[in-house]
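Q: Predict the assembly, please.
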Amino acid sequence: MLTSYFKTVLLLLAVIVSIRLMGKRQIGQLQPSELVVTILLSQVAATPMQETDIPPLQTLIVIFVLTGTEILLSALAMKSRAVRRLVDGRAITVIKDGEIDQRQLKRLRYTIDDVFEGLRQKDVFDLSDVNTVVAETNGNLSVLLKEQAQTATKADVTQKTGKAGMPQILIADGRLSRGGIKALGWKTADVERILKKAGVSLKDVFLLTAAEGGKPLLVKKEGAE
Amino acid sequence: MKSRVIVGALCLVLAFLTAFYGYRRVGRASEALAAAAETAVSAADDGFEGSARQALRLWDENRAVFFAFVRRDTAEAADVRFEIVRRAILQSDPARARDAFSELAAMFRTLPRTEKPGFENIL
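A: Predicted assembly structure:
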């Protein structure tokens, strides 16, 4: 009994170390080779936990062979496109320019229901909105909508998108903030120019802020002219 | 990336070295134990106890290796038979000890073959 307890702890730690060595990925993002190794690891570790006949060292050897092979395969796949295709397969376009490629669907053994399910998961309910759908190697569907169905971005709704940095305080309660001036890469003369243009003196300013590429914000002290 | 490759290669090397160590230790110990058991079986009455004790000592030295690398039921079966030998010597019953030794000899003669990494065993 005590042996089973320590064996289980040992194997559990070995599996956790193996999974950590293989890297962080969610189940849905696993590549085929990673999925195979994950299933095998759980199976290899689970059997000796229940069956005391299998020596733990044998199980540890299997776990480390699986982990080492997976890491080396993934490293090889990063270096070589051919290995990547062999191990992980390749992404396949199932809808192109709004037209379903039935041949590819058959090849992937995807039904049209599978495609619709994948689209709904991407919040797409109308097939006529779809320009391209790619079946990725991890089984996920990537969807590109037609231009008219795409969500407007900030670039679409603004005429001019200047570079707006973090606003810095230049004057607070009539006193110059040298840190803010320095952060903007300005000089005191630049602040004086703004004050001259606004027609206020330093002691009458409650707050002056400015951001890189943005318009300065000036708030006068109450009662100041 | 490079460090991950090193870790992967280390995993494989570590696993191989452990497996190879187990294979060699179990193989050599099995050969030696089989030979010792056969010697005890064929030993003359006056030389039996000495050869039996030598076989027992050899088992005590290698017991942990068998429990670490060989299936537990096989290691336990060998352990039980050596225990029979130990008791038979204490009770001055060489016939019973010889029976156990002949079973042990057969067991250790077949054991290394199951560990050999030949293609016929892999496939």
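The beta strands of chain A are 92-96, 99-100, 130-135, 141-145, 168-172, 175-176, 205-210, 217-220. The two ends of chain A are 88 Å apart (CA to CA).
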